[in-house]
């Protein structure tokens, strides 16, 4: 196991009606002037935004609002948020929504206290300082409610990149599974896929003998395998929603990923798809992961055989472990299709003729020099082949 | 799933040579005058205490020392530590050792800022305020390095009780698996047993449909099943030690225990044994758990069958699930014996004739009124029968 520091000081407030405590938690974490940051209509229509505001009013906490976060959140709104916070002396950024709203809130929080262009962080500069962030989560997916990460798309060139730093870990996150029962099945399935991707990206390690984190990842994958179809079948199944929500948070707060190298190339390869076509990140991952896994399979057949047996219930073929390894990938692919995810470029709305452009941005965009590193280092040729497998 | 708040802001610093960073972390968490609290000879002999002091010296941090913590730490030394901290204006308590040193340090940290008798907390009063605590861990066992809990024995009547409160969660914990390689096999096995008890106590729940935490607990039990015999066979196996150490911390920081009722009656029943006979807590648990589990089996046969199948690899007997459930308890018992744990009162040094006294303290001691509650509420008659099963 590699040396590591694990510091996850987010206070998770989980369960029914917990959004009514938002104001109390902002107070506990010393917020006095808040930017409430959210996306579009659903948090307004559902009455959630009003309930959150009421809880702030009850504590006498002042706030300003900035809505309009899009899926695959854009740098333009981040700049707008930074200006607003400076003008209004905001000291706490509250995201109400999913990963997009949270990631946008984190970018604003980091940008407000930074003299340069906030995009520097998305070109690789570590975030060391930020306003406090809190979240009220409305979809189990990105894990951003418990992570030090944020992903933003720069409009110029549609480049999608991530930034990181403990300073943007939320001080608290309100997790009410009931808020996710109104999600369309497709969005729920995208969230499920994203959570499972966070687990697979950690599972694909080059560190040996990390049984404890292997087992924890498998535990969360098994949970998703069991609970995913239950929420697709019955969106109002609170218990299934609750199990998925905690699994999603634990999948990405890194308690199951410490002390081991991780992959993140499926995420990297997908990011160009959702940046260019504005498809859902989870849907893009559903098409990307089976292709990437198949491409890198030979790098460590036993690792893929392990997840096939332990998670997907495949029988180990001791004479031909690669058969088992492939069965596991196929089982995962079939699972994703069964919950309604796309299987190829066509179903995703992506185009074969864009592949050179995708590879160019992926391998040569901000801060990259011809390849992406992870479980296996992939160069432009590798990435071209992988995108072609997705057609 | 039940509503819950999960807040685990301990910074875990894991890996080789990390004890040399102790001073740096005390500084990060605002300590300026430290009480270094430890047990007996091993941390002195091994040179660990000197390395820790050197790291404080390098940061210019002043300290006083209080050694002499015994296994099953006593209230007498806690009072002494409280007086010393007051006299010396200590603002940070650093435990160097195992669960006993850490629990004693937590009691001191809470007692210093409390006007009444610190034992009030061990009679049920919640700890709301305390000096900051940090730890350098030398045995994977109690999980106290990441928990809000402390267990102390009051000399008068030899009553062993626990106290709790987020204020005594360590600010940081240094976890270097190398420090555990010099432990005698028996102590290692006691630690393994304690960790598995923390998992079983959470597994035995009356909350339904908590798949995510069931799976996380099973993941950690499977890790212990795999790694335990590896450290007994080869004490210098760093990787096995590392897997156990992280499993031990995750087993007890409650990330796998949230949103569900828990048991803790095996701990309660054992505490009277280690209080009276001064046996190792883990050894006491090894004798206690199989008896308790067998006694409460019929309360939820399927729960015991589940752990039998998923962790111990038993075949499910679909016509007679109680057979599978019992096989799981037997497999666990055999595992404990295989790593060198005692199997009964005689091997533990406990005496049948003391049972009435044990039951009296257990069910009528400080704050109890004739029974202990958990997975199943157990009255004096139940507890008598359970102790008798352990003869």
How would you characterize this protein structure?
The structure is a homodimer of 391-residue chains. The first copy, chain A, has 391 residues and is an alpha/beta fold. Chain A folds into two domains: 169 residues, 3-Layer(aba) Sandwich (Rossmann fold), CATH 3.40.50.1970; 205 residues, Up-down Bundle (Dehydroquinate synthase-like, alpha domain), CATH 1.20.1090. Chain A is 49% helix and 13% strand. The first copy, chain A, contains 16 helices and eleven strands. In chain A, strand 7 and strand 8 form a beta hairpin. In chain A, helix 1 crosses helix 3, helix 11 packs antiparallel against helix 13 and helix 15 crosses helix 16. Chain A is globular. Chain A starts with a strand and ends with a helix. The model of chain A has no long low-confidence stretch (mean pLDDT 97). At the A-B interface, strand 1, strand 2, helix 8 and helix 9 of A face strand 1, strand 2, helix 8 and helix 9 of B.
Q: What order do the SSEs of chain A take from the amino end to the carboxyl end, as H and E?
A: EEHEHHEHEHHEEEEHHHHHHHHHEEH
**Distance between the terminal alpha carbons of chain A, to the nearest Å?**
38 Å
Segments of chain A where pLDDT lies below 50 for 5+ residues? none
How many DSSP-defined strands of chain A?
11
- Largest sheet composition of chain A: 6 strands, parallel
CATH architecture call of the largest domain in chain A = Up-down Bundle
- Mean pLDDT score of chain A: 97
Number of domains of chain A: 2
CATH topology of the largest domain in chain A: Dehydroquinate synthase-like, alpha domain
User: Tally the helices of chain A: what do you get?
Assistant: 16
Name given to the CATH homologous superfamily of the largest domain in chain A: Dehydroquinate synthase-like - alpha domain
Beta-strand residue percentage of chain A: 5-15%
What structural class results from the helix and strand content of chain A? alpha/beta
- Overall shape of chain A: it is globular
- Which value, in Å, is the CA radius of gyration of chain A? 20 Å
CATH class of the largest domain in chain A: Mainly Alpha
Helix coverage percent of chain A: 40-55%
Largest interface: A-B, 44 and 44 residues
> What oligomerization state is this entry in?
homodimer
Widest sheet: strand ordering of chain A? 2-9-6-5-3-4
């Amino acid at each position: 196991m590699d040396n590591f520091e694990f510091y996850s000081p987010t206070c998770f407030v989980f369960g029914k009606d917990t959004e009514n405590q938002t104001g109390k938690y902002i107070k506990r974490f010393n917020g006095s002037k808040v930017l409430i940051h959210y996306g579009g209509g659903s948090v307004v229509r559902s009455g959630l935004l009003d309930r959150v505001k009421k809880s702030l009013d009850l504590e006498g906490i002042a706030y300003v609002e900035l809505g309009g976060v899009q899926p695959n959140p854009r740098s333009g709104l981040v700049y707008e948020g930074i200006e607003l916070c400076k003008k209004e002396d905001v000291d706490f950024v509250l995201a109400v929504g999913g990963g997009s709203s949270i990631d946008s809130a984190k970018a604003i929080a980091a940008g407000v206290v930074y003299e340069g262009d906030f995009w520097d962080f998305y070109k690789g500069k570590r975030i060391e300082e930020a306003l406090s962030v809190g979240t009220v989560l409305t979809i189990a997916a990105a894990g951003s409610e418990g992570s030090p990460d944020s992903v933003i798309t720069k409009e110029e060139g549609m480049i999608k990149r991530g930034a990181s730093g403990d300073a943007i870990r939320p001080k608290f996150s309100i997790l009410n599974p009931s808020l996710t029962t109104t999600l369309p099945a497709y969005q729920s399935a995208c969230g499920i896929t994203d959570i499972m991707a966070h687990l697979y990206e950690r599972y694909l390690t080059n560190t040996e003998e990390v049984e404890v984190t292997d087992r924890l990842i498998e535990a969360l994958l098994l949970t998703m395998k069991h609970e995913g179809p239950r929420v697709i079948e019955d969106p109002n199944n609170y218990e299934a929603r609750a199990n998925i929500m905690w699994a999603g948070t634990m999948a990405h707060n890194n308690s199951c990923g410490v002390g081991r190298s991780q992959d993140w190339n499926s995420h990297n390869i997908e990011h160009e798809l959702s940046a260019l076509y504005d498809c859902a990140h989870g849907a893009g991952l559903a098409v990307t992961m089976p292709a990437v896994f198949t491409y890198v399979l030979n790098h460590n057949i036993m690792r893929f055989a392990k997840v096939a047996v332990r998670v997907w219930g495949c029988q180990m073929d001791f004479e031909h472990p690669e058969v088992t390894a492939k069965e596991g990938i196929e089982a995962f692919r079939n699972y994703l299709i069964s919950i309604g995810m796309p299987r190829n470029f066509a179903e995703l709305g992506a185009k074969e003729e864009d592949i050179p452009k995708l590879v160019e941005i992926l391998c040569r965009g901000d801060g990259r020099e011809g390849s992406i590193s992870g479980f296996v280092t992939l160069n432009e040729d590798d990435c071209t082949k992988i995108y072609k497998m997705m057609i």
